């Protein structure tokens, strides 16, 4: 992948708010980008095999009111404003959590190895510490962290709703190993150490005391047999840069891709997996936020994007979070294999996996 400088990133996005939105919505993964190119080679990077993988949605409710979130960004100066400089609405939100519009995104990953050994990882750690902690207690994550059953915190990207609730993890396991993608800003590292940012109503009162790894985008990073991470140099709104995802090779099934927001774009993500990872011509399942019309403002060009997913032959799609309800409806209409949820624990609809639901492969 080609690196781009942060100056180029800002120059590119400064062309207009629309481009900033596209970077958030995943349209950077142009559906037609391979239309006039020869078929790509299937990847050769061997990541081993695992027996199964289970992704349990701890929280996909990153915020409770779309218009309030967009309004906060617009009042602060637009989509390119530093997220640490935005005074996010944290009081008086009727449908929020104790009046706060902040929720958060977090997923528990459980892998069974071929020898039967079980491994647990935490993908992202929410935004609102109280909401995240409540969700942790509901799913038993608090005890898993306290007992050090969860081996590491895998932060997909620096966005407020995926990372700012880090105190909820550290209060139970302050020395948990943390893995972040290339692109984190100084504020992100300061937050991990225990900083406070009053303007955006953010603080971490439990400094991290364990190992920290920043993963580059130049290679596939092995995690355990059958599991690897991949990192993308992608510009995202509110001055965030870089996102990583996890890839699993499940024996007798195929590859499973688990993402946080997929700002790199679902087509870009799956093309990279197909061209890089051995077995990439068999992507069995994908789970996570797919960032297509997250604010329910459908653009006709997304119809082609949804149809393009068919060519990968995915058997199960466990989307949620920033995928958008209208996107899920469109996917179902064209017979993509969406796994439905239960609409519990403040998830609004059962059209996709919600809080407390899981995908088992």
Quickly describe the structure.
By secondary structure, this protein is an alpha/beta fold. The chain is 25% helix and 23% strand.
Descriptive labels:
23% strand; 15 strands; globular; Metallo-beta-lactamase, Chain A; alpha/beta; 361 residues
Describe this structure in words.
Mean pLDDT is 91; it is low at 1-31. It is globular, with a radius of gyration of 19 Å. Strand 6 (196-197) and strand 7 (202-203) form a beta hairpin. With 361 residues, it is an alpha/beta fold. It has one domain: Metallo-beta-lactamase, Chain A (4-Layer Sandwich). It has eleven helices and 15 strands. Helices cover 25% and strands 23% of the residues. The protein has a seven-stranded mixed beta sheet with strand order 8-5-4-3-2-1-15. A six-stranded mixed beta sheet has the order 9-10-11-12-13-14. The chain has a two-stranded antiparallel sheet with strand order 6-7.
